[in-house]
Amino acid sequence: MALPRAARRAPGGSRVGRAGRRCAGRAPPGGDCGGGPSSPGHVLVGELAELLGTSTRTIQRQLRAGTFFIAPLPQIDYHLRWSRERVYRAIADTHV
Predict the structure, then answer these.
(1) Closest CA relative to residue 79, chosen from 32, 52, 30, 46
(2) Residue 61: count of CB within 10 angstroms of its CB
(3) Alpha-carbon span 84 to 43, nearest angstrom
(4) Is residue 42 part of a domain?
(5) Is the CB of residue 72 less than 8 Å from the CB of residue 80?
(6) Under DSSP, is residue 52 helix (H, G, I), strand (E, B) or coil?
(7) 91 versus 25: which is more confidently predicted?
(8) Listed residue (88, 78, 8) closest to 52, CA to CA
(9) Is the pLDDT of residue 13 over 80?
């Protein structure tokens, strides 16, 4: 049974996405509850959205339109990934 929209908000009022519902406050010691095939050198779309302060949907729309400013790595098993180094460099370049 799906929760109504109002019930899907975190205690602080922010929306809770799929990863937030999956973790439900039970993040492992590393803090990553994405459950995806992320590695130290890669960033998945959820983490990228968090770093940029935007939604995963916005990133996906910009990728489709060809306007997203960081090129993703080639897809492996249907997961969008970015080079962690490239992401942090792009963030540093845009926030000079």
Answers:
(1) 46
(2) 12
(3) 5
(4) yes
(5) yes
(6) helix
(7) 91
(8) 88
(9) no
CA neighbor of 3 nearest in space, from 26, 24, 21, 27: 21
Q: Which residue has the tokens 């370049």?
A: 93
pLDDT at residue number 46: 94
Residue 46 lies inside a defined structural domain of this protein: yes
Domain count, the chain: 1
Q: Decide: residue 96, CB within 10 A, 0-12 exposed, 13-18 middle, 19+ buried.
A: exposed
pLDDT tens string 22-71: 444 444 444 444 445 556 889 999 999 999 999 999 999 999 999 999 99
Query: What 3-state class would DSSP assign to 10?
Result: coil
